[in-house]
Amino acid sequence: MSPTSYQAAPPRVVEVAYYNATNSKSKPNQKNLLPRKNRYNSAMKLFKKKTTAAIGKTAEATAVRFLQKRGLKLLTQNYRCRFGEIDIIMSDKKDTVIFIEVRCRADGAAVNAAESITPQKIRKIQTTAQHYLMTLKEIPACRFDVIAMTHNPHSDDYNIEWLKDAF
């Protein structure tokens, strides 16, 4: 056979069985094998990345803890109305209402987390904030902050940047 007419060997198929962890002391047999479709799903869970929703939820919870350690009091989270959503609403010691937008990007992303806030998003946040303020008896002083986070997907570490009075 000449070097130019090389034929690759056909791929080997190896079947792997995934056992149900509910009864770990029992010996593997047909009863505790997962059904065929669940074996594939179980295997994929090992390699599946976190969804963006899960990362966002974790980022918001991290931001709340970060801000509470700095003396802010949580008023509400994920305030929604027909105009949009505000991630976090907090107040400081001077009773200033702070509307906080949380943005999270992976390390090395093309666009910085703070730069990802568009003028359209700013208008939505401001309109939603007006809606929230209309529900209060008195309209307090307010400001808009941004929590810009970068996250390392391999270690679940977050770098937090707090931009006060961002817009």
Structural write-up:
- With 167 residues, the chain is of the alpha+beta class.
- It folds into two domains: 11-47, no CATH class; 52-163, Trna Endonuclease, Chain: A, domain 1 (3-Layer(aba) Sandwich).
- Helix content is 28%, strand content 27%.
- The protein contains three helices and five strands.
- The chain has helices at 36-47, 52-69, 119-134; strands at 73-81, 84-91, 97-106, 142-152, 157-163.
- Strands 1-2-3-4-5 form a five-stranded mixed β-sheet, with helices on both faces.
- The termini are far apart.
- The model is unreliable at 8-26 (pLDDT under 50).
Taken together, the total number of domains comes to: 2
The main β sheet shows up as:
5 strands, mixed
Contiguous runs where pLDDT drops below 50 for at least 5 residues: 8-26
Strand arrangement across the biggest beta sheet: 1-2-3-4-5
| Helix fraction bin | 25-40%
Secondary structural class: alpha+beta
What secondary-structure arrangement, pairings included, does this model have?
Blueprint: H1 36-47, H2 52-69, E1 73-81, E2 84-91, E3 97-106, H3 119-134, E4 142-152, E5 157-163
Parallel strand pairs: 3-4
Antiparallel strand pairs: 1-2, 2-3, 4-5
Could you write a compact summary of the structure shown?
28% of the residues lie in helices and 27% in strands. It has 2 domains: 37 residues, no CATH class; 112 residues, Trna Endonuclease, Chain: A, domain 1 (3-Layer(aba) Sandwich), CATH 3.40.1350.
